[in-house]
Amino acid sequence: FRLGSGGQYQGAIVGDNGAMAATQNGGAAWTTRASSTNEPLMGVDFVSTSVGYVTADSDVLKTTDSGASWSALGDSGSSSLLDVDFKDTGKGWAVGRAGTAYYYNGSSWTLIDSGMSPGRDLYSVCYIDATNIWVCGDVGTIAKSTGTSWTMSSDADVTSGLWRSIDFFDT
């Protein structure tokens, strides 16, 4: 959710068969939106009230008009992207099945070797800045990237099971 100009939180939800909906009033009412795809939509991230991104299988779609229309940023090459996190600079990360991690530099996608075994799906990404990218997934996967290399968490209390979402906030 983002705080809109009217003091109300704005948000979006996504689902199967390209389904998406948006709220302009903190979730009191939702309006369906056309996504331009029938692919399952898995991850959504808005960086402002007008600019947002959503994963659609191998594509990441972008809107600049609050979800009224969407266009593909270009095929990442992955067959199953599950989450996306962008910055207002137009740079972002997408992650998915079999440990796939992609970086978008503002004009094209680059496959980044996550160092994950092919059996580890990455369900969520949190792009803090260029040297702090966190992911989580199955088989207890929690990992941090500096932009060039990955380090798996070795904390035995959290390195088992399935982690579906990760986020950080500034205190």
Write the layout of secondary structure elements.
Elements: E1 2-3, E2 9-14, E3 20-23, E4 31-33, E5 41-46, E6 52-56, E7 59-63, E8 71-72, E9 81-86, E10 92-96, E11 101-104, E12 109-112, E13 122-129, E14 132-137, E15 142-145, E16 150-152
Antiparallel strand pairs: 1-2, 2-3, 3-4, 5-6, 6-7, 7-8, 9-10, 10-11, 11-12, 13-14, 14-15, 15-16
* Arithmetic mean of pLDDT: 86
Distance between the termini: 19 Å
**Which class do the helix and strand fractions yield?**
mainly beta
Biggest β-sheet: strands ordered side by side in the sheet = 1-2-3-4
- How many helices in DSSP terms? 0
Give helix and strand order, one letter per element, not per position. EEEEEEEEEEEEEEEE
Unreliable runs = none
Tell me the overall shape: globular
Number of strands: 16
* β-sheet strand percentage: 35-45%
- Specify Rg, calculated over alpha carbons: 16 Å
- Biggest sheet overview: 4 strands, antiparallel
Helix content: under 10%
Notable features of this structure?
mainly beta, 4-stranded antiparallel sheet, about 170 residues, 16 strands, about 45% strand, single chain
Explained architecture:
This protein is mostly beta strands and 171 residues long. The protein has a four-stranded antiparallel β-sheet, with no helix packed on it. A four-stranded antiparallel β-sheet has the order 5-6-7-8, with no helix packed on it. It has strands at 2-3, 9-14, 20-23, 31-33, 41-46, 52-56, 59-63, 71-72, 81-86, 92-96, 101-104, 109-112, 122-129, 132-137, 142-145, 150-152. It has no helices and 16 strands. The protein is globular and about 45 Å long. The protein is 0% helix and 43% strand. The relative contact order is 0.11.
